[in-house]
Protein 1
Amino acid sequence: SYNKLLEIEDEAKLIVSLPNDGRAEPLAQRRSHIHQLFQRLLHETSPAKTFRNLISVRKGVKLAGRVLPLFALNEANDTVVELLHNLSRLNKKDWQKDVLPALYNSMSLVFSVSDLQTLVQFADATRQGLLEGGVTAGRDTPPGAGPVAAALQHPFGATVVWCLVNRGEVVYATGDPLDMDVEHQRAWVQFVC
């Protein structure tokens, strides 16, 4: 996967050096390679296990952070869902300060173009991943607090949750709540509260 990323980055450099009329075929080939990389990361025989193994090492997390901006929006959304589903694993890593900021920057780009429906999908993946990861409220968390409150006790988890909440605020401030799906609004309020 990492070699494929390097190949894609080399193609980007080559495409820039070509005249405009000669870029169509190399761009199509690059898009195809990006899609192949996405398929390799998330849609092989056991995608969840493959992806979980990938992000269990520093190099894999760096790879995820570097490929997110390359993916089409739907592919990036699927990748972010998997990352959020594995948030408890990322929170437990001792290399949070070294590797995760680059991953966060890529994730925040995806969050910044998300609508309410996508934010709800991200919120569900976050909650479900934290529950499945066994994240429970710590001693500093109020009684009855859910797994999202527990995620706020970790720097990366807190940053991701606050970025989601911030994007939700922007969606509500720039959109008309009457035009938003009631179920999505309910799910979002449940995540935030």
Protein 2
Amino acid sequence: FPSHDNRPLLNHLISGLTQFLGDHVEKGTVSSVGNYIVTGLNSHLLKGAKVRFFEASRSADTLIQPHSHRYCLFSLVIRGRVTHTLYRRTKNQDTAEGEDFAVRKIEFVGEDADGQYKVQDLNSVGVEYATFYRHKVTYDVGHSYYLSSDDIHSVIFEPGTILLILEGSEIKDSSVILEPVTNYETYRDWE
């Protein structure tokens, strides 16, 4: 296959998206949240749409909680770099191949994108414990990835990164988070 230099196209896309987002900010049609999930990660969601931008203004000091989504999504690195980690269940519970986690259900409660989450109590019926292994991939400018609503993932953003996310329609009522289990103790990272 012939290789193509997509940088001019990508630069044109970045310019257009920057203008597009700026226009929507001026019109008040963007819901923005600073320090979203981790310090320095800003989220911009176009109201009435399923288009989101993540913009990292600094290095993340912590890993984003491993989680799934209620919808499928497509992500494109517009600027910078992200390290994306998928968490996959090990087969036959072979702990030599993975790490133990508590799998907690979270439900979105709210009427808009700025709503809150209700997290399943660790002592409630239905909290699952499972072993997962991690599969890490680094994505640079122009690279993209797709996630189904069943995928559990985490992302680390380098400073200056802009990630475009196209969210599909909600197909589930809830999603899950993973919390590490060590020496039969669960460490709560999400409250």
Protein 3
Amino acid sequence: PELPEVHTTGYSFDEADKLNEVLMATGQLIALLEGLSGSFENEINKLKEEKKQLEDELKSVKPLFPSNVIIKVPSKLLKTINEASDSYLRGDWTATGILLRKIIDNSLHLKCQMNQCEDKLKDYNTSEFHDLPKKIDICAGIGIINTNRDKDLKKIKLYGDSGAHSLKIELSPQDIEEAKVPARLLLEELFG
């Protein structure tokens, strides 16, 4: 007697075994991809959280000078302003103080050049430029700067000199916060 045919799918047993292997491999691949997808989701979520933290941190960073002030200053000052800004953002307060002093001196000098009164910054006997406090007084006297600013600008000069010439004195964040406002106001007054 003949045995009846058992499978009616049109596939032989070997073909069915191969299909079953492919089906199992496909299931394993799906499971692997789903696992990777979960890992990617975790990594994506971690990156999103890091991005949010950086955005929050960036919001808390206050630049030394706002961009609307920086874009108006002569290009000759930009290198020093950038160096001061970098020092400020790194928390290098002494370097920032020294560079603020340089910005004040160079700003007054450049404004006098622009107004063709640079010779007033020189000592008539020696033809040497006066020191910064005297330049501040001269600029206030000839109307280059507001006379109410001279005390604050001389304090910045003192911070810069102390930072540059004293091993014992380190400038603090409070010193720089106190000095950056009059420095910004000077830049706005001279070049705004």
Protein 4
Amino acid sequence: ENKNITHTGTATATEDGIYEGFSLYGDSVVTDKECFIFFDDRTEHGERADTSEIPGGYGIYCLPYSSSDTYVTFDTKKLKNIFPLKDGESIYQLELSADKKALYMMSQKSSKNYLTVIDAETYKEKSKVIISDEKDQSSHIEYIGEDFMVITHNHPNRDSSISVYTPDGKGGFKENFTTMQYVYDNNSTITDE
């Protein structure tokens, strides 16, 4: 398993009894020499947390490490933000390609969900595509194969859909097809309607 960051958080009650919380949910992916980390910058009510005091700002952080047969040593002095985000974009999923050469970042800005491919060695953006632009829809990478990726789209007032993305030949992905909708039967298998 290459994910190792969990979450913690705090909440305070307002005068009218509503809890406003901030859960420092984070996730990570690990290559042979670096751990890439992000955290959710939104409160439970969708408001953006103030991250202005974090050195390097909000984004994807890289924590180099070395390992032996018995120890893993993190070089915390070299922790840095390698992919800063601005203008209200929030990361909600980070995955690693099978060859560990690319990071796949799912993010949201306004009502749009994006898939950004980032070179895991240079930290440069290779491509960025809009995955969905429906209000209140969430999209998640469910499976990464050698030559395709499956992304689910959860719609609030109707059944969800599945998209298959294939390499575009330029370092990114393009939509190959999308199901109109799917539902889960009692055996948790996908069936078309």
